[in-house]
Design a protein that fits this description.
Helix content is 34%, strand content 12%. With 163 residues, it is of the alpha/beta class. It has a single domain, classed as NAD(P)-binding Rossmann-like Domain (Rossmann fold, 3-Layer(aba) Sandwich), CATH 3.40.50.720. It is globular. The N terminus is likely disordered. It comes from Coffea arabica (Arabian coffee). This is Bifunctional dTDP-4-dehydrorhamnose 3,5-epimerase/dTDP-4-dehydrorhamnose reductase-like.
Length: 163
């Protein structure tokens, strides 16, 4: 991580916190697998949150997903910017890092902030509409997890000398 992104951050869900969102089948399985993998001392588990990449053609890219939605909720979340963090995963393997890691960039960004950047840099004519969590709940199959993850463990390991 570059020093400009490495700043003091100690808020949100920590690696020691048990997953507390089981609103979807995916989330339940993810939590169960994480609990099982904790028993092995040679495993490194990366907690990825809303992955973003520069490949806007990838349907799994968070930006690509929300840009296609008719309506979005405007909620701040931790995000994993893959172009920045994937090189760190290679270094983690070289350092033999183990255990659970919140594999997100520091801080949070709202869905509207992401879409504003999409409009400003990609499509100046792009528009979106917001709706509430209650309105969203009526049209989605499973609830969504929105949270801030504490990135201080990753910062401590990879941002030496950053304040």
């Amino acid at each position: 991580m570059s020093s400009k992104r490495c700043f003091s951050l100690g808020i949100g869900f920590k690696e020691e916190d048990k997953p507390n969102f089981t609103g979807s089948f995916y989330s339940k399985i993810k939590a169960m697998i994480e609990e099982l993998l904790k028993e092995y001392d040679n495993v490194c588990t990366l907690r990825v949150q809303m992955p973003i990449s520069s490949d806007l053609n990838n349907p799994r890219n968070f930006i690509t997903k929300i840009a296609k939605y008719d309506k979005v909720v405007n909620i701040p979340n931790s995000m994993t910017v893959l172009d920045e963090l994937l090189p760190i995963s290679i270094e983690m393997a070289k350092r033999n890092c183990k255990g659970i890691w919140n594999f997100t960039n520091p801080g949070v960004i709202s869905h509207n902030e992401i879409l504003e950047m999409y409009r400003d840099y990609i499509d100046p004519k792009f528009k979106w509409t917001n709706f509430t969590l209650e309105e969203q709940a009526k049209v989605i199959v499973a609830p969504r997890s929105n949270n801030e993850m504490d990135a201080s463990k990753l910062k401590k390991e990879f941002c030496h000398g950053a304040s």
